[in-house]
Amino acid sequence: MERPQKSHRSRQSGPSAKKKSNADKKKRDITEEKKQNPKAFAFNSKVKAKRLQSRAVEKEQRRLHIPTVDRTTGEPAPYVIVVHGPPQVGKSLLIKSLIKHYTKHNISEVKGPITIISGKQRRLQFVECPNDINGMIDAAKFADLALLLIDGSYGFEMETFEFLNIMQVHGFPKVMGVLTHLDKFKDVKKLKKTKQRLKHRFWTEIYDGAKLFYLSGLIHGKYVKREIHNLARFISVMKFHPLSWRTSHPYVLVDRFEDVTPPDKISTNNKCDRNVTVYGYLRGCNMKKGTKVHIAGVGDYNVAGLTGLADPCPLPSAAKKKGLRDKEKLFYAPMSGLGDLLYDKYAVYVNINDNLVQYSKVGDDDTSRKGTEKDVGVDLVKSLHNTKYTVDEKLNKSSINIFSQKSNSLNEIMNDDDEVHVKHLVEPKEELDTIDSDDESDDSTETGSPRFKNDKKQTFADNNIEEEREFHEGRIRRKAVFGNESKPDDQEASDEDDETENDNSNYESSSSDEDEEEEEEEEEEDIEENMGNASKWKESLLERTVSRQTTNLMQLVYGKSETKSNDSSYENIDASVSSDDDDEFFKPKNEGKKKSSNGLEGDEVNAADCSKFTNYARIKDWKNEEIIESIRDRFVTGDWSKAAQRGKAAETENENDDDVFGEFEDLETGEKHDGDKTGDTNKDIDADVEERRLKKLALRAKFDAQYP
Ligand SMILES: Nc1nc2c(ncn2[C@@H]2O[C@H](COP(=O)(O)OP(=O)(O)OP(=O)(O)O)[C@@H](O)[C@H]2O)c(=O)[nH]1
Q1: Fewer CB in 10 Å around end: N or C, the chain?
Q2: Which of 84, 93, 94, 163 to mutate to test the pocket of ligand 1 (most atoms within 8 A of CB)?
């Protein structure tokens, strides 16, 4: 016999009993408080309520996306974080500070991608974006996250908007803003005001609530630890959604390259075809041997060989433990001269700092060795001692430069016939050249004026942003001036200003006074008005989407649609697009209209599949009562035998209809067939057909009677 189970007896003493009672008490306190003072737990500020609501909706919206299938096998390649900003904004310093935070190592220079391990399952690759358009285009192609650095003391510069526009056409990776040089503000109120203004402008450009970090200044030449810690946290937990184009195309961000052309070949012909081996992580999908590769800024090349190498910066073991041990905080920055081990197909190079090595500079005049036989090995080593520059240094001297536009770039070294070896973990890196800032400062010294403004303003991409070149702090800067924005100095500083949620000292707005909030609200509205509610560059998104939609793959394969789309909305869009078309000007009058109205040339996405035959005569108007009635008997509740009869009647009708279209001309024989005549001559055949049809009907009726 089964005994009834004992009911659970909760603990009366000990730590778990204590814990439970504490939790119960807390819960009771909160509900009691709520009962006593219900107002305290409701929204008492419409600004806050509005903000909370929009945040919740945004979060919800962000969650909604088409599920992406992760087809990557093995360890995922590091995420690429591109640090972008105008010259001297602090890009290198930010990368150095982040590397220091993650690895506890100081790096002296930022050159090429720097790979670090940021967590048990995550690696990051930091790249400084070059300050030229070509570099920006390349960076936008591989960035998983773009950190946009903005000089807070100066305001937005054109470089930021240029990069945003470039990213827009490359799938728009994740974006976060970082304000630097905030320590230049002496007035706290002005600082707050500026922060808020820049934040709103940033939101206008990206989206409401886009993350903007503030780096308040430098301590011992580095950004404040706490602020870097917060930024690093965000990067470490950020979710990266793969961009569809990238996941279906293999690409490599080169973090090291070597010229492996035999030296004698170069010595005989300095301009000979070179063999270059590039290393980097392969992303996207697998790459086949023999694939042609495009090297940004250089050209298209054949891949001579492809080898999988050991990961130079492997993820820590999957053993269960919290966090990373210091030993596991690896990093790999071959171009910055970091990481003591270099792996190659043929060798492992150990990097030993020069100060740790004492070279025996033994010359030929060494008396101790006199008389001994000359050893080839010794000679070789001696010649190595005498080498002034390493291969890397020599390469650097020749300024191999993929991204920027130097004349002596890799472009010149490599000819079209050159072969490229792509090795496992790669990225074509380039010398991250400091933009034209040098040239600019040269200009400035020529000008000799401490500060000048270029009267010539350029409108940026029709989006209400104007470029204003001015001489500032020893160089020419390209300030972004917004058409509808009042000057910052004109704006009154408000007493209370909310800090953004990611403000390092305070994550939530702390003001509670209603008056203040109303003021704040008005202020925010003012700002919104001044800045326009939506960024102009986003307006082109719809157009872009529509223009993309008009590319109809089916039409490309099967030719133009011959049927008119039923979807009126698409017709409208189509009409608007075609009316914008410049070609319209060159068409004979009314032709454009004719085409769009008869739908023959329409690019409607929803047009019926012209590859399949559709008998439009059979399409019925289902609003018509009679037609609805005609199918009533086809349902379970109806009389099926009636339906069968009706069906036969309809078929006969259709067959008769078909006879109407019986006329045709045999193009091969030139013989003309008249539909009616054919009907007469084939009377006997028709009689047979009719007989067979009746037989069929009888059989069907019999069947229906058996299985009602
Ligand atoms: N006062 C102050 N100085 C800063 C700040 N951020 C960077 N700097 C200084 O600005 C200078 C330029 O910093 P970098 O990190 O070299 O700037 P960059 O953007 O890499 O410069 P380029 O590579 O030449 O474009 C350095 O001297 C930094 O110390 C900041 O927030 N406040």
Answers
A1: N
A2: 93
Identify the sign of the CA torsion 198, 202, 205, 209: negative
Task: Give residue 148's pLDDT.
Answer: 92
Q: Whose CA is nearest to atom 26 of ligand 1?
A: 90
Percent of the chain with pLDDT over 90: 7
Residue ranges of E strands in 405-452: 419-423
User: Hey, what are 307's tokens?
Assistant: 């080898």
Contacting residues for 589 by C-beta, under 8 A, at least 6 apart = none
Q: How far is CA 239 from CA 81, 114, 233, 421, 581, in A?
A: 13, 20, 12, 33, 40
Q: Which CATH architecture has domain 79-242+473-531?
A: 3-Layer(aba) Sandwich (3.40)
CA 90 to centroid of ligand 1, rounded, Å: 3
Residue span(s) of the chain under CATH 3.40.50.300 come to 79-242+473-531
- What is the tens place of the pLDDT at every residue in 100-134? 898 888 887 888 888 888 887 888 999 999 988 88
Ligand 1 site, residue 183, Cβ cutoff 6 A:
yes
How does the average pLDDT of the chain come out, rounded?
A: 68
Q: CB–CB of 230/504 below 8 Å?
A: yes
Ligand 1 atom 5 nearest Cα: 181
Beta-bridged to residue 149, according to DSSP, are 178
Is the distance from the beta carbon of residue 129 to the nearest atom of ligand 1 less than 6 Å? Answer: no
* Sign of the dihedral defined by the CA atoms of residues 633, 635, 639, 645, in that order: positive
DSSP 338-357: B-SEEE-SS-EEEP--GGG-
